[in-house]
């Protein structure tokens, strides 16, 4: 480590926050520099005193594909809470690139990832991105995809910048239908009214009370019987599918699911913003308590501006005086 009460530079604090989006605080402290280490409490305090805001690019170059918005939630452990809470996540993209030996792997093009602590915040971000980044207008159509959760099925109604078309995630529909009826669906299963009615009757024939009372069955039956339009786009060439659960696994689960740390929700938002900024190739506005907000590019370099400041040497003070200045420093 370094000498007690030694000040870390702003650049070092920013590096801590960047590394903490993938590593535990202990791992961050051990890998912050080849010359010294930091304690996990120091890493925690540094991140706590940072304010982060993402500066997204001014415009996304669209390749002519219809814009897709896919949404989901990731359950995260909150410090001091017994139950996990939901971090709402979204990805906007336009087009896919297929690669691999058999062209069986796909990469999302013109991609923007984001997250929020409430559905309202997620909708507000979606409206801004669809309008400002993708140039959509109220009369333009775009696809909204996700599982059968009520907030996802109705999410298009929260979007005012464009006209949303809800398409239920095929994976969840096919999986649940197979589980309840033992019937395997395909992309043509909902292409005609006759086929839709056939599948409704298959669900109606179920008599198991446990299945009938389950929320999964109720959602599936309601979708097929009342909102079958959400199932008619699986064969549409303009529909690129939904992969938000995969995005959650690659972006958020690494830090908030596979590692056992619990966080304050503010910290989760900060660390998510950092990971999203790297993927979106955007800059971050990072503010510290004693300095102005400055743009920081986490991709090419971690620029920061050192401002003139004064450091009080407390090494010769009494224990009581050091405690007083420490309280002032960290706002306790």
Mass-distribution shape: elongated
SSE string, helices as H and strands as E: HHHEEEEEEHEHEHHHHHHHEEH
| Structural class estimated from helices and strands | alpha+beta
The quaternary structure here is single chain
The number of strands is 10
- Rg value: 24 Å
Proportion of residues in helical segments: 25-40%
Low-confidence runs of at least 5 consecutive residues: 292-307
Q: What is the beta-strand fraction?
A: 15-25%
SS summary, helix count: 13
Strands across the major sheet, in which order? 6-3-2-7-8
Compute the separation of the termini in Å: 25 Å
Overall pLDDT metric: 84
Biggest β-sheet strands, sense, barrel? 5 strands, mixed
Task: Describe the secondary structure blueprint for this structure.
Elements: H1 10-20, H2 25-31, H3 40-48, E1 50-55, E2 68-76, E3 85-93, E4 96-99, E5 105-108, E6 112-116, H4 119-133, E7 141-146, H5 150-153, E8 163-168, H6 170-181, H7 193-204, H8 209-213, H9 215-226, H10 244-251, H11 253-256, H12 265-280, E9 283-288, E10 294-296, H13 319-329
Parallel strand pairs: 2-7, 7-8
Antiparallel strand pairs: 1-9, 2-3, 3-6, 4-5, 9-10
């Amino acid at each position: 480590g370094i000498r007690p009460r030694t000040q870390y530079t702003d650049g070092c604090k920013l590096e801590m926050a960047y590394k903490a989006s993938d590593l535990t605080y202990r791992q961050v402290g051990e890998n912050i520099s080849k010359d010294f280490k930091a304690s996990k409490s120091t890493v925690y305090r540094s991140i706590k005193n940072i304010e982060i805001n993402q500066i997204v690019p001014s415009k996304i170059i669209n390749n002519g594909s219809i814009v897709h918005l896919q949404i989901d939630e990731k359950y995260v452990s909150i410090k001091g809470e017994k139950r996990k809470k939901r971090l709402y996540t979204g990805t906007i993209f336009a087009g896919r690139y297929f690669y691999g030996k058999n062209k069986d792997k796909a990469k999302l093009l013109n991609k923007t990832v984001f997250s929020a602590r409430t559905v309202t915040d997620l909708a507000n971000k979606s409206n801004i991105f669809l309008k400002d980044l993708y140039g959509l207008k109220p009369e333009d159509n775009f696809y909204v995809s996700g599982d059968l959760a009520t907030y996802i099925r109705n999410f298009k109604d929260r979007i005012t910048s464009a006209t949303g078309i809800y398409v239920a995630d095929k994976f969840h529909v096919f999986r649940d239908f197979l589980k309840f009826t033992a019937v395997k669906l395909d992309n043509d299963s909902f292409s005609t009214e006759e086929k839709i009615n056939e599948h409704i009757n298959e669900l109606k024939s179920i008599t198991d009370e446990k299945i009938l009372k389950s929320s999964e069955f109720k959602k599936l039956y309601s979708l097929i019987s009342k909102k079958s339009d959400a199932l008619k786009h699986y064969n549409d060439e303009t529909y690129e599918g939904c992969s938000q659960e995969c995005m959650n696994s690659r972006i958020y689960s690494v830090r908030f699911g596979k590692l056992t740390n619990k966080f304050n929700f503010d910290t989760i938002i900060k660390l998510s913003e950092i990971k999203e900024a790297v993927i979106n190739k955007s800059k971050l506005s990072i503010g510290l308590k004693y300095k102005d907000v400055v743009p920081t590019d986490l991709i090419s370099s971690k620029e920061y501006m050192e401002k003139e400041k004064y450091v009080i040497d407390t090494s010769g003070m009494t224990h009581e005086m050091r405690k007083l200045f420490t309280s002032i420093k960290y706002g306790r």
